[in-house]
UniProtKB/TrEMBL annotation:
<feature type="repeat" description="WD">
    <location>
        <begin position="1144"/>
        <end position="1185"/>
    </location>
</feature>
<dbReference type="InterPro" id="IPR027417">
    <property type="entry name" value="P-loop_NTPase"/>
</dbReference>
<dbReference type="GO" id="GO:1990234">
    <property type="term" value="C:transferase complex"/>
</dbReference>
<dbReference type="InterPro" id="IPR020472">
    <property type="entry name" value="WD40_PAC1"/>
</dbReference>
<keyword id="KW-0853">WD repeat</keyword>
<dbReference type="InterPro" id="IPR001680">
    <property type="entry name" value="WD40_rpt"/>
</dbReference>
<feature type="repeat" description="WD">
    <location>
        <begin position="1060"/>
        <end position="1101"/>
    </location>
</feature>
<feature type="repeat" description="WD">
    <location>
        <begin position="722"/>
        <end position="763"/>
    </location>
</feature>
<feature type="repeat" description="WD">
    <location>
        <begin position="848"/>
        <end position="889"/>
    </location>
</feature>
<dbReference type="InterPro" id="IPR019775">
    <property type="entry name" value="WD40_repeat_CS"/>
</dbReference>
<dbReference type="Pfam" id="PF24883">
    <property type="entry name" value="NPHP3_N"/>
</dbReference>
<dbReference type="InterPro" id="IPR056884">
    <property type="entry name" value="NPHP3-like_N"/>
</dbReference>
<feature type="repeat" description="WD">
    <location>
        <begin position="764"/>
        <end position="796"/>
    </location>
</feature>
<dbReference type="GO" id="GO:0007166">
    <property type="term" value="P:cell surface receptor signaling pathway"/>
</dbReference>
<dbReference type="InterPro" id="IPR036322">
    <property type="entry name" value="WD40_repeat_dom_sf"/>
</dbReference>
<protein>
    <recommendedName>
        <fullName>NACHT domain-containing protein</fullName>
    </recommendedName>
</protein>
<keyword id="KW-0677">Repeat</keyword>
Length: 1307
C-alpha cells in the first residue's frame, strides 16, 4: 500500500511540518508489514481539526509524532538484511500497537467520518486519550529498545570476559593446524566408534563420566578422537576439545587447558557463555590461576549451577601424555574427582599407557576404559586393509599412474602385515610411497616390503615402525655427500625436534643460521615423517610423536649419525643463539611507543608493530632462552660470559619485549631466579631506592611516574611469595632434600611447590575439608596429610597420588608427624586422642589417651623414643613413643597449646600457645625453663631450625608476624613482616637456610633467616657506602657514601666517632696517609678533600680535575697525594700545603686507579684505555706505558718490596709486571668477572684478587704463578685497605661481633 499526504486534510489540523517527514519515512521503512499500522495512524491524525478546545492536546500529539519520526528515521537507513532481529520485532509491534489505537478511534464513528467524530464537542475527551495511547505505545517501544540494548551490552561484556581468557588457539580438533590428525576412513574403526558414541550419548546416571582410550603410540588414538569430536560437533553436542602436542608449547601447557576448554564451551552454548562469563567478571584473574582454581572457577562452579537436565556435552582430550607430566596428573585428578558433579558432561581422554597417567586412572572408581592395542588383530587388519587400499588408489590417481586395481592383493596384504596394529606405520608408508617429488610409488613400496628386521634386534611393538623409519632415513642419504646430509639433518631436524616451539621456515633458517634452501634440502626426502612447509611463513612439523621418540632413542635408531641427542651441548647452542638474536635485534622502545604511560591495550596497531619489529625467531629467543639455559651445565664459561652481557645491556629491553609479546608472566620465573631484576620504565619508580638495580638504571630510564612517598629502601624480608591457594594456608612442610615444599589449605587442597622457583608442581585432591597438618617421611617417599574431614592421607609425592586413606578418628585431625625412622606415624585429633600408625602398612597400632580436650599438635623426639603433644586443655603430654605409655603432663600455659616441637638434639621442647607466649621445656626432666614473650596474638606454630640455632614462631591475625629467637638463650632476634593474615605454620628447610610460612592470606612466604638476624651495623649514612679504608693502625675506619659524607668509626666498638661534611656529591675514594694523621677523599663533585683525622675538619679542598675523582693515594712519605680522574688525567698534590704540583695527561680514557711504589719514586695509574702508565712520582713525568690488557684497567698495586706491579682489568685478567724492566711476567685469569680489588701479602709471596663472586690467591714464588687454595685470612690481616666489597668479607670473618661489611659495603 502506498501512503501519500493529502494537503487539504491538514488545513485545519496538524501542520505539514509534522506529517510530511512521517509520510516520507513511511515508504522507506525496510521492514515488511511495519508500514500499515503507522499509515492507518496517519489517516486518523490527518482528519483532526484544530479548535480552541483541543489546541494543547494537539501540541502534545505533534510532539509524539515527532518522536515517532525520530525513532523510525535510523531504521530507514538500514539494509533489510542487516536489521537486528530484536529491532525488527519491536518496530512490527509498534506498528501493531498504533494500528490498534487508530482502529479503535475509527470504530467509534462510521467509515469515512473520523474527522467529524473528533470534531464533536461531546467526544473531545477522546482526543487526549488517543494522544496518551500513542505516547504509551512509543514509550513501550523505547523501553523495549533500552532493555534490549542493555541486554546486548550485558552479553557483550560476558563475551568480552570470555574472550579475555588465555588459550591455546590451535588446540581444537578443527583448528586446521598442519600436524592435526586425520579422521577415520569411512567404514573403519566401526566397533570402537560405536562404543564411544553410545557411551557419550547415554544419559543414564550410572554411565561413567570419563572414558579412557589407551594405546601404544601410532595405534590411531588421535584419529578416533578427532572422528568422535567431529560427530559430536555435527550433533551440536561437542563442548570443547584439546589435542595436546609435545612440539608446541601452548599445546603442552597444562595452565591453558581449562581456560581453553572454558572458551570453547562458551562458544558452543549461550548458557555456558553466560555462566562462564559471569565467573570471569567476578574474578578476572581466573584464567591465570593454578589449575585447580581454573577448573573450579571456570568449569565446575559455573556449569554446576545450570542443573542436570541439559543434553549431554562432550569434551575430548587427546594425547594427554604429551602434556607436561606434572600438569597432566592434576588435570586427571580434577576430572576424575569432579566430573560426576556435572551429570551432563562426558570426557573422552586418549593417551599412551605412561606410568604417571596410568597410576591416576587405576585409582578411579567410575571409569570407562578401552585398551586399543587389545582389540582383536583381525578387526584392526580389516580396517588397515581398507585404509591402505583406498590410499594406494588415491596415490596412483593423483600421480596419474594408474588406479587401485594395479596394486596386487599380495602387496596390500604384505603392507597390512608389516603395519601390525599401528596405523602410523600404514600412514607413514603411504606418505613415503606417494612422495610427489620422487614419483616412484612402486619403487618405494618395494623398499618397504623388502626391509627385514635384524635377527639380533629385540622384537618390540615398534620394531616394524623403527625399520620403516630407518628406511626413510637411508633413502635420504647419498654416498657422495653423506657428511653434508648428516650435518644438515642434525642442524635442521635436530632444531625441529628440540626447539620448544615450531618456527616458520624462514625463521628456522635464521635461527640455525642457514638459508631457507638449506632447510628445504634437509627436508626434501623426509616428507613422509616431517610435514613440509608450503611457504616461508609456515613451520615444518613432525607428523607423529613416534618419529621424535625414534630419532632420539639410540636403541631404536639403527643409524647413529641420525640420532638426535638432547643434551647440554645442544641446549647451550640454542641458549647462546637466543642471546645472540636478542643482542642483535632488541633495543629500547623497540615498538616506537614513546609514551610509556600507555597500556599495551591502548596502543593502536601494536600487534602489527610487534610483528614487524620482533620477528618470529626473536620472539622465540625472548620466550625460551631461559628454558634452554636451565638445561646447560652450571659454570659453562661461554654461557657465563653471555649472561653477563645480557644482565648489563639487555635485561630491561628483554622485559619490554616480553610485555609486547604477551609473555611477561613467563619472565617472572626467570626474574625470581635472577633475584628480582624485573623493572622497566614506570616499574623502576617502585623499586627500592637503596638497591643496585635502582642505582644502575635510574639514571638511564626516564619514568612517567615519580613516587613521593612509600618506596622501601630495600627489598622486603620475604624472599618469595607462593600464590596459588584460593583459601587460607593451614600447614607447610619441606621435603627432606629441601627441593619441595608442601602446603595444605582450608578448601582441602594440597599443593606441591618447587621450593626454589616457587612454581606449583602439582595439586593433590583427596580431602573434603581443611588440611591442618603435613609431614614428609624422612626418606621423602611419603607425604602425610591430616584433615578436619577425620582422615589421614598418605601420598606418593613423585606420582602425586594418594596411596592410602587412614580412617579411625571420630573428629577432625589437627596434627601429623612421622617418626625419625619413618616406620610410624602419629596423629592428634579433636577427639582428644593421639593415634599411632604403621606407616608402611597403613594400620592403626595404638591409641594414646590422656588429654581432656582437642590434641592440637604432636612431635617425635629426634631419637624416636618419645612423643610430645599439645592440647586445647592448656597442657603438654610426654609419651613413650614405642608403647604409648603416658610419661608426664607439663603445666604452665594459661590457654590452649597450638604447637609443639623438639629441638634437634632432643634436649628441649618448645610450645606455642593461645596465651601469646612460647614456653621452653627441659625434655629430659619435663620442667619449664623459660617463657618467650613478644607476640600480640595466639602462637599457632613453632619450629626449631635443623642446625639448632633458631626457633621460629608464627602468630594469629592480630599479630601477623613471625618471630625468630635464639634457640639456646631464648633471646629475641628478629620480627619478620610480610603476611596480611594469621601465620598458621612455619618450618625450616633441612639445611636451615630457608624458613617457610603459610598464612590465612592464602600465600606461602619463603624467608632468609640470616637476613632476620640483627647485626651491630653502624647506622648513620642515609645512602649506600661506595668506599672504605682502614687507618694504618687498624683502629679507625673511614667510609664514603652516596650521601656526600664521610664517616669515621671506632673499629673495636663499632661506634661512629665523626661525620665529615664538605663534598657536594658522591664520595668515590678514600685513603689514609701512612702516618694516619690525614684522610683524603675523592668525589663525584670533581674535588679532593684533605681532612684532619684527629679534629675531623677539612684542611683543604683541591680543585683541578674537570670530571669526577675515581682514586686517591698518599705517597709513603706523606709528601705527595695522587688523584686519578674520569677526565683522563692524574694530578699530583702537596697535601700539607694543599697545592697542585703537576698533571699527567697521557691517558686516553678515564683513570681508574693510582698507586705509589713503596720507595715513593714511581706512580702507577690504570686507565680505561687498557694501559698501565708509569710516572715519575715527584714531577709527574711520563716514564713508560705498559700494554697487556684488552679492556680498561681498574686497579693497580705494587708489591711490598716494589719489584712487582699488578693490574686488574675488565678483561677478567690480572697482569703481573716486573716494575724495573716493565715486562709482563704473567697473565692470570679470574672467573669471567670484573676484578674488584688487588692486594699483595706482607711478604710479597702471594697476590690476592677479588671478583664479585670469588677470591683468588696466587703463589708468586712459583714460576709461573700458581693458583692456590689459601684462605684470604691466612694471607693478610684486616688492616690492609681494601675496597668495600672485599673489606666487608674480611671484617665479617675476622670479627663476627662487628659484622660491619654486610650492610655498609653493599654497592
Amino acid at each position: 500500500m502506498k501512503w501519500s499526504l493529502n494537503p487539504g486534510k491538514t488545513a485545519k489540523g496538524l501542520s505539514l511540518a509534522i506529517l510530511q517527514p512521517l509520510h516520507l519515512l513511511l515508504d522507506a521503512i525496510p521492514i515488511p508489514g511495519a508500514k500499515d499500522g503507522i499509515g492507518i495512524l496517519l489517516d486518523v491524525v490527518e482528519g483532526i481539526d484544530k479548535t480552541s478546545r483541543n489546541s494543547s492536546t494537539l501540541l502534545e500529539l505533534e510532539n509524539h509524532l515527532r518522536s515517532l519520526t525520530d525513532l523510525l528515521e535510523p531504521v530507514t537507513k538500514m539494509d533489510q538484511n542487516n536489521i537486528p532481529s530484536g529491532l525488527e520485532d519491536d518496530v512490527r509491534k509498534l506498528s501493531k500497537d498504533l494500528e490498534h489505537i487508530a482502529s479503535s478511534v475509527q470504530s467509534k464513528s462510521s467509515a469515512g467520518r473520523v474527522r467529524r467524530f473528533l470534531e464533536r464537542n461531546k467526544d473531545e475527551h477522546d482526543l487526549p486519550t488517543f494522544s496518551q495511547n500513542v505516547k504509551a505505545a512509543l514509550d513501550r517501544f523505547q523501553l523495549s529498545q533500552t532493555l534490549r540494548q542493555e541486554q546486548e551490552l550485558f552479553l557483550e561484556k560476558r563475551s568480552a570476559a570470555v574472550m579475555s581468557l588465555p588459550r591455546a588457539n590451535s588446540a581444537a580438533y578443527d583448528s586446521g593446524r598442519e600436524d592435526a590428525p586425520s579422521s577415520c576412513l569411512e567404514g573403519t574403526r566401526v566397533s570402537i566408534l560405536t562404543e564411544i558414541m553410545s557411551w557419550f550419548e547415554n544419559m543414564d546416571s550410572s554411565t561413567p563420566p570419563v572414558y579412557w582410550l589407551v594405546g601404544l603410540a601410532g595405534i590411531g588414538k588421535s584419529t578416533i578422537a578427532k572422528t568422535v569430536a567431529e560427530r559430536a560437533g555435527k550433533n551440536k553436542m561437542l563442548g570443547g576439545s584439546f589435542f595436546f602436542s609435545r612440539s608446541d608449547a601452548p599445546l603442552r601447557n597444562p595452565s591453558l587447558v581449562f581456560p581453553t576448554l572454558a572458551f570453547q564451551l562458551a562458544l558452543s552454548d549461550n548458557e555456558f557463555k553466560n555462566a562462564i562469563g559471569e565467573a570471569i567478571q567476578q574474578d578476572p584473574t581466573l584464567g591465570h590461576k593454578n589449575t585447580f582454581s581454573q577448573f573450579e572457577g571456570l568449569i565446575l562452579t559455573p556449569l554446576g549451577r545450570l542443573g542436570p537436565t541439559r543434553q549431554t556435552t562432550l569434551i575430548v582430550l587427546d594425547a594427554l601424555d604429551e602434556c607436561e607430566e606434572q600438569g597432566a596428573d592434576t588435570i586427571l585428578q580434577l576430572l576424575l574427582s569432579h566430573a560426576s558433579q556435572l551429570p551432563f558432561l562426558r570426557v573422552l581422554i586418549t593417551s599412551r599407557p605412561e606410568p604417571h597417567i596410568s597410576s591416576v586412572f587405576t585409582q578411579a572408581r567410575n571409569l570407562a576404559k578401552r585398551v586399543l592395542h587389545d582389540i582383536e588383530a583381525s578387526v584392526i587388519e580389516e580396517d588397515l586393509r581398507l585404509y591402505i587400499r583406498s590410499e594406494l588408489g588415491r596415490i596412483l590417481k593423483r600421480l596419474e599412474l594408474g588406479n587401485v586395481s594395479d596394486w596386487t592383493e599380495g602387496e596390500i596384504n604384505s603392507l597390512v602385515e608389516k603395519s601390525g596394529k599401528l596405523f602410523i606405520y600404514a600412514a607413514t608408508s603411504i606418505r613415503f610411497i606417494g612422495d610427489a617429488r620422487v614419483r616412484d610409488p612402486r619403487g618405494h613400496l618395494r623398499l618397504i616390503l623388502d626391509s627385514q628386521l635384524s635377527k639380533e634386534s629385540e622384537v618390540t611393538p615398534y620394531s616394524q615402525l623403527d625399520s620403516l623409519y630407518v628406511g626413510v632415513l637411508r633413502n635420504s642419504l647419498s654416498d657422495s655427500n653423506r657428511k653434508a646430509i648428516v650435518k644438515r639433518f642434525q642442524t635442521v631436524v635436530g632444531s625441529i625436534v628440540l626447539l620448544r616451539q615450531p618456527l616458520p621456515m624462514g625463521s628456522l633458517a635464521e635461527f640455525v643460521q642457514c638459508t631457507p634452501d638449506d632447510v628445504d634440502t634437509a627436508l626434501r626426502h623426509l616428507r613422509s615423517v616431517i610435514i613440509p612447509p608450503s611457504t616461508p611463513d609456515e613451520a615444518p612439523r613432525i607428523y607423529h610423536p613416534s618419529f621424535r621418540d625414534f630419532i632420539m632413542d639410540p636403541s631404536r635408531c639403527a643409524i647413529p649419525d641420525f640420532v638426535i641427542v638432547a643434551g647440554p651441548d645442544q641446549e647451550l647452542r640454542h641458549a647462546l643463539r637466543c642471546l645472540e638474536l636478542m643482542a642483535t635485534f632488541l633495543k629500547q622502545d623497540i615498538a616506537g611507543i614513546s609514551d610509556v604511560s600507555l597500556l599495551n591495550s591502548e596502543v593502536k596497531g601494536l600487534e602489527e608493530k610487534v610483528r614487524d619489529v620482533l620477528l618470529a625467531e626473536v620472539q622465540y629467543a625472548c620466550r625460551y632462552w631461559a628454558s634452554h639455559l636451565s638445561c646447560v651445565e652450571l659454570g659453562e664459561k661461554r654461557m657465563v660470559e653471555a649472561l653477563e652481557g645480557f644482565s648489563k645491556r639487555l635485561i630491561l629491553m628483554w622485559i619490554e619485549a616480553m610485555s609486547l609479546i604477551g609473555s611477561l608472566s613467563s619472565a617472572v620465573v626467570w626474574i625470581e631466579v635472577a633475584h628480582r631484576w624485573a623493572v622497566y620504565h614506570s616499574a623502576l619508580a617502585f623499586t627500592p631506592y637503596d638497591t643496585a638495580l635502582y642505582k644502575t638504571y635510574s639514571k638511564d630510564v626516564k619514568s612517567c611516574i615519580r613516587v613521593l612517598q612509600g618506596v622501601e629502601a630495600q627489598w622486603p624480608q620475604s624472599l618469595t611469595t607462593f600464590i596459588g591457594h584460593s583459601s587460607g594456608v593451614y600447614s607447610v612442610a619441606f621435603s627432606p632434600d629441601g627441593l619441595w615444599l608442601a602446603s595444605g589449605s582450608e578448601e582441602g587442597m594440597l599443593c606441591l611447590w618447587d621450593a626454589m622457583l616457587g612454581e606449583c608442581i602439582a595439586t593433590l585432591l583427596g580431602h573434603s575439608a581443611a588440611v591442618t597438618s603435613l609431614a614428609f617421611s624422612p626418606d621423602g617417599l611419603q607425604l602425610a596429610s591430616g584433615s578436619l574431614d577425620e582422615t589421614l592421607c598418605l601420598w606418593d609425592p613423585m606420582l602425586h597420588t594418594c596411596t592410602v586413606t587412614l580412617q579411625g578418628h571420630s573428629h577432625g585431625i589437627t596434627s601429623v608427624a612421622f617418626s625419625p625412622d619413618g616406620s610410624r606415624l602419629a596423629s592428634g585429633s579433636d577427639d582428644h586422642t593421639l593415634w599411632l600408625w604403621d606407616a608402611m602398612l597403613g594400620m592403626h597400632t595404638v591409641t594414646l589417651q590422656g588429654h581432656s580436650d582437642s590434641v592440637e599438635s604432636v612431635a617425635f623426639s629426634p631419637d624416636g623414643l618419645q612423643l610430645v603433644s599439645g592440647s586445647y586443655d592448656h597442657t603438654l603430654c610426654l609419651w613413650d613413643a614405642m608403647s604409648g605409655t603416658h610419661i608426664a603432663t607439663l603445666h604452665h600455659h594459661s590457654d590452649s597449646v597450638s604447637s609443639v616441637a623438639f629441638s634437634p638434639d632432643g634436649l628441649h621442647i618448645a610450645s606455642g600457645s593461645d596465651d601469646h607466649t612460647i614456653c621452653l621445656w627441659d625434655a629430659v626432666l619435663g620442667v619449664h625453663i623459660a617463657t618467650l614473650q613478644g607476640h600480640s596474638d595466639s602462637v599457632y606454630s613453632v619450629a626449631f631450625s635443623p642446625n639448632g640455632s633458631w626457633l621460629a614462631s608464627g602468630s594469629g591475625s592480630g599479630d601477623k608476624t613471625i618471630h625468630l629467637w635464639d634457640a639456646m638463650s631464648g633471646t629475641h632476634i628478629a620480627t619478620l613482616h610480610g603476611h596480611s593474615h594469621s601465620v598458621n605454620s612455619v618450618t625450616f628447610s633441612p639445611d636451615s637456610l630457608w624458613l617457610a610460612s603459610g598464612s590465612g592470606d592464602q600465600t606461602l612466604c619463603l624467608w632468609d633467616p640470616m637476613l632476620g638476624t640483627p647485626i651491630t651495623t653502624p647506622h648513620g649514612h642515609s645512602n649506600s657506602v661506595l668506599s672504605v679504608a682502614f687507618s694504618p693502625d687498624g683502629l679507625r675506619l673511614a667510609s664514603g657514601s652516596y650521601d656526600h659524607t664521610l664517616w669515621l668509626w671506632d673499629v673495636m666498638s663499632g661506634a661512629h666517632t665523626a661525620t665529615l661534611e664538605g663534598h657536594s656529591d658522591w664520595i668515590i675514594s678514600v685513603a689514609f696517609s701512612p702516618d694516619g694523621v690525614q684522610l683524603a677523599s675523592g668525589s663525584f663533585d670533581k674535588t679532593i678533600c684533605i681532612w684532619d683525622v684527629m679534629h675531623a675538619t677539612c684542611i683543604a679542598t683541591l680543585q683541578g680535575h674537570s670530571d669526577w675523582v675515581r682514586s686517591v693515594a698518599f705517597s709513603p712519605d706523606n709528601l705527595r697525594l695522587a688523584s686519578g680522574s674520569s677526565d683522563s688525567t692524574v694530578c699530583l698534590w702537596d697535601p700539607v700545603l694543599g697545592v697542585h704540583i703537576a698533571t699527567s695527561g697521557h691517558s686516553k680514557d678515564q683513570v681508574g686507579s693510582v698507586a705509589f711504589s713503596p720507595n715513593g719514586l714511581l706512580l702507577a695509574s690504570g686507565s680505561w684505555d687498557s694501559s698501565v702508565y708509569l710516572l715519575d712520582a715527584m714531577s709527574g713525568a711520563h716514564i713508560a706505558t705498559l700494554h697487556g690488557h684488552s679492556k680498561g684497567v681498574t686497579l693497580v698495586a705494587f708489591s711490598p718490596d716494589g719489584s712487582w706491579l699488578a693490574s686488574g682489568s675488565y678483561d677478567h685478567t690480572v697482569c703481573l709486571w716486573d716494575a724495573m724492566s716493565r715486562v709482563c711476567i704473567a697473565t692470570l685469569e679470574v672467573d669471567s668477572r670484573n676484578v674488584l680489588d688487588l692486594v699483595f701479602s706482607f711478604d710479597g709471596h702471594t697476590l690476592i684478587s677479588q671478583t664479585p663472586t670469588n677470591t683468588f690467591a696466587w703463589d708468586l714464588t712459583s714460576q709461573p704463578p700458581q693458583l692456590v687454595s689459601s684462605s684470604i685470612l691466612e694471607v693478610f690481616p684486616p688492616t690492609i685497605s681494601l675496597t668495600s666489597l672485599m673489606w666487608s668479607r674480611v671484617v665479617c670473618s675476622v670479627n663476627p661481633e662487628l659484622q660491619l661489611g654486610v650492610r655498609m659495603a653493599m654497592l
